[in-house]
Amino acid sequence: MCYQCGSPSRRSFSRFLAAGAGLTVLAACTPEAPKAVAPSSSTASSAAPSPSAVTASAGPTPGAAKVGQSPEVPSPTPSPSATLARQFSLDDPASPWVIVNKHRPLKPADYVPADLVRPAVATSAAGEAALLNSTTAAAAEAMFAAASRDGVAMVLASGYRSYNTQVATYNGYVAARGQADADTASARPGHSEHQTGWAFDIGDGGGACSFEPCFADQPAASWAKANGHRFGFVVRYPWMLHPITGYYYEPWHLRYVGVEAATDMLKRGVGTLEEYFGLEAAPGYL
After folding, report:
1. What is the CB neighbour count within 10 angstroms for residue 83?
2. pLDDT tens, 53-111?
3. How far apart are CA 52 and CA 49, in angstroms?
4. Helix %, strand %, coil % for the chain, to 5?
């Protein structure tokens, strides 16, 4: 989820999606609190959604029209994972299958992974943001090395984010914009995948289109989308599945679920973890 929500490019993409479609803006990342601004009169002009982001945000207004989709919020199909042995908990934050979304906060809310490490990969992040849990870190090292062998430069742009960091971030948005607007731009504390250590954002080695819609066309994004399953990763927030995930497309946000599950999802054509594990859609907070 993103670290640069509210940038001009995000606003431009928001206007593109909203044109004629009545979309409520979604954003999905926010590591830094916003500067104080007057509350916006239009979410589409202030908090911008995008097929890009870095942390968490709000869901679409019930009944709002979606580009290329029916107005109804789709419900996940019966779990395709039924034939895959339920190996891990969907609730334990230490589990690679934990599902964190707007309906499923972390428990405990201030969870801290016990095995945070700094992976041996190229990174543009610093401090806690350069950390992942040990399993994700090892898988990321293997994936980055494979990408490099294929001539693709990939960097770790944002990893772990603590509960306290998310508190400060979210509160900054509330103070600047009010809670309703803040929920379109920042994940509420305890609702961010970054806090688990199982998710991280990637960037292109050259720094092109970081956390912007055009990142989807960069070599790092294309390679990760096509090959991430080989190392246990899925693109957590796919294109136009925000009525299920609660977030617009984030081609940089990868989530570790293990090679078996990631490969099974690809083979079955299942785009979201909610659908794969037979959970309800989570477009907005309960």
Report:
1. 8
2. 333 333 333 333 333 333 344 444 446 666 566 789 999 999 999 999 999 999 999 99
3. 8
4. 35, 10, 55
